[in-house]
Sequence to fold (99 residues):
Amino acid sequence: MAGTWSDGSGRGIGEQGSLQGDIRNGKLYAHFCTDSPEQMAADVECTNFDTAQADYFVLRGDRMDWYRQSGKENVKYLTLHRRIAGRKTPTDNHCEDEQ
Fold:
């Protein structure tokens, strides 16, 4: 699988890039590539994927749990929720190890 990601910041201070991954044992393993400001200005595709670290995602009903690598294991980072028209989307503001 391949696609793009964005941290959702609409103020020009966030990050964005590409991702690629595969599904194994019910988990979506993803590798991320963050666009540099120079790549974004030149509309150049990001190619420097972090292959040493693999986060994974697990779909659980209407939510998706994101697990980030921490040492030799993955720990739950946050929960992503579907955006459903006419309904308030829950917010997960507590991110472990957030800088």
User: Anything to note?
Assistant: The longest strand covers residues 16-24.
